[in-house]
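Lecture 7 notes: from sequence to structure.
We start with the chain below.
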Amino acid sequence: MGTGLIIAIIAMIVVGIVECYRLMYTRKDCTNVPQYALIRGSEMFMYVGQLEFFNAQVPDGLKSLGSALCMTSISLGNYVSSLLVTMVMKISIEDHIRMDPRKSEQGSSG
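Predicted structure tokens for the same chain:
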């Protein structure tokens, strides 16, 4: 689990550097493949560690319950992540329209 957290930290640093580079040079063709690969690798290490933790902490007769709790925590985390992304997108779009009068004129004219 610690390896996954370290990889996640590295991934966030890479994301920040690539985003700063992209904004500085306004390149639209910059890909996000390295960031996604690092995030997926970190999730893999964290999920395996989490599943091992749940299996080690429950009695032998409740192993399936431990696995179910592990998968439930992962799915709830994904739902919360989707909710946060949706909220940020709605707020960002509203702020962008409010700040650019041309966008609001186009949007109101239909």
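Points to note: The CA atoms of residues 22 and 43 lie 25 Å apart. The radius of gyration is 20 Å.
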